[in-house]
UniProtKB/TrEMBL annotation:
This is Bifunctional deaminase-reductase domain protein. One of its GO terms (biological process) is riboflavin biosynthetic process. Transmembrane segments: none annotated. Gene3D superfamilies: Dihydrofolate Reductase, subunit A.
Length: 191
């Protein structure tokens, strides 16, 4: 069965974005950026992959992405209606209008969607890109967390699991990769 992987950037005080969805404050070294592009090219938006000279790089981990409306909105604001054209794209939202035939808007239960996607026959997993409210709603279905930990304290902002009820959920730390400049990538698998 395929896994749902929450691949997410996080400040050391637990925020995935600032109060107004800011993300530009995350520092990263060149070593870290190079590693991310090589290890997780499938998590890089298609138009950015083209800019980096890697438009045809095969997907290594994911063939499907599930995101919330607020994760999708920055691409729309930039005029990009299909930000992950190299993946099957699902946006969970009750308000987002359909703007691209390659992006499926899901207005129903995201848990049912994820269970259907997990049951598919594929060697690649499902990328949960967020946001935090969607991750909170899908916590029971998350099999793996890949936390890109940035050496910065945000002070306030959007939580990684916003809106979720108190529900302690155990994960085992299965890998740690560190980089010059203080970035770290922590991989956790459901216990």
């Amino acid at each position: 069965m395929r896994r749902l992987t929450y691949y997410i950037a996080l400040s050391i005080d637990g925020y995935i974005a600032g109060p107004n969805d800011e993300v530009e404050f995350y520092p990263q070294s060149e070593e870290y950026s190079t590693w991310m592009a090589a290890e997780f090219p499938d998590a890089i938006p298609t138009h950015v992959r083209a800019h980096l000279g890697m438009p045809d790089t095969p997907n290594r981990h994911f063939d499907t992405i599930v995101m919330g409306r607020r994760t999708y909105t920055p691409a729309l604001d930039a005029g990009v209606t299909s930000p992950y054209a190299h993946l099957r794209q699902y946006v969970v939202s009750t308000t987002q209008e359909q703007v691209d035939p390659d992006v499926t808007i899901v207005r129903t239960d995201p848990i049912a969607l994820v269970r259907e996607l997990k049951a598919e026959d594929s060697q690649l997993d499902i990328y949960l890109a967020g946001g935090g409210t969607l991750a909170g709603a899908l916590l029971s279905e998350i099999d793996r967390l890949i936390v890109k930990l940035y050496p910065v304290v945000a002070g306030a902002g959007k939580q990684a699991f916003g809106g979720s009820a108190f529900a302690p959920t155990a994960f085992d730390l299965t890998d740690v990769t560190t980089f010059d400049g203080g970035n770290a990538v922590l991989t956790y698998d459901r216990a």
